[in-house]
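Aim 2 progress update. The chain analyzed this quarter is reproduced below.
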Amino acid sequence: MLELLLCSMLTIVPDYLFRRYVQGKRIGREITLYSVWYELRWGITACLVLTVSLITLIFYFHPSTKNVTAVFRTISILPEKGGRVDKVFVGINEQVVAGQPLFQLDSSEQQAALEAAKRRIAEIDAEAVVSQTELVSAEGTIKAAEGSYLQALNELETKQELMRRNANVVAPREIERLQVAADGRKGALDAAIAAKQTLQTTISTLLPAQRASTEAALAQAQVDLDKTMVRAGVDGLLQQFTLRPGDVVNPMLRPAGILVPAEAGRGALIAGFGQIETQVLKVGMIAEATCIGKPFTILPMVVTQVQDVIATGQFRSTDLLLDVQKLGQPGSITVYLEPLFVGELDGVPPGGSCIANAYTNNHDALADKNISTLNWVFLHVVDTVGMVHAMILRMQAILLPVQTLVFGGH
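Predicted structure tokens:
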């Protein structure tokens, strides 16, 4: 309507003035209800053509959309493993901070595993003490074996010397017996030395390895125990959190509730523009928005990201061939709008619906010295007609509460 009124001031009104004051025709006589088209046909035709052209120019170079939402994400409150709730530390719709305990699952199994790991470490430490004692005992055994071996060896050497001097003094059988006794005591000495080396290896290698393995099991048991305590990952507000002791939660089937982050939906707006405006929407464009949750307010925004894919065209690999007809209607171009000034989105509830305009800016193109005259005039017209869309948005901001409360039946 605004464009039609503007165009009529440039076409129909001059046509009427020409008919009235140049041709002398008057309303009610020459210009009647039935002769309006014939008398003002040039003005009416020019008005319609100019209106359509102006609307096309405005909506193409200064796109508008009602598909604008303060999108926010929620965090499902889930434990890493299923279990029965033992304690609940927060209430319904409570504000929480990052790291605050929310609830704890039954941890008797994890505590038992943790205690078993601690006991195993104590057992290994006791084994290390016992092994040290056994090592001292092994050293004594080695000394005793060395003494016995030296005694047998000395006795054997003595008998061999006597036999060398006089073969009739010592019987060969006696020499063999002493040799066997010396070899046996040498074997006992080697066994004692090997036992000592085994104890040393146990003390220096085996027991530390067992202790390290048990410490790892202790750490794993502590991690499993910590996982039974579910904490808030970020600051936010709990929603639909009705958990009570005795309830069973499952990470796959039954979440405990929803956590809405404190900053969710308060940093940007996400808008969906028509595909025809793909070549116009650019990062850095100035935009404006008005939201139902913050009426009578124009929010200055800037385009920070233009998604280069359209969601309706996506598909996942299945065992069925894709039928393009089933993709539905053409999707929209997703655009991210951020406020120009800090705090502009304060008061806009996360998830709220808005209306947004984006404005084409040809300042850099107009500053080019090599620009042609026709292009210069056209770009000036494009920038100028953006005022019309800005006026329309402000009219929508004024009428939006009326349409919602009165004509919307709320």
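Helices lie at 2-10, 12-22, 36-39, 41-61, 108-165, 172-227, 363-366, 373-407. The CA atoms of residues 63 and 251 lie 44 Å apart. These observations will guide the mutagenesis experiments scheduled for the next reporting period.
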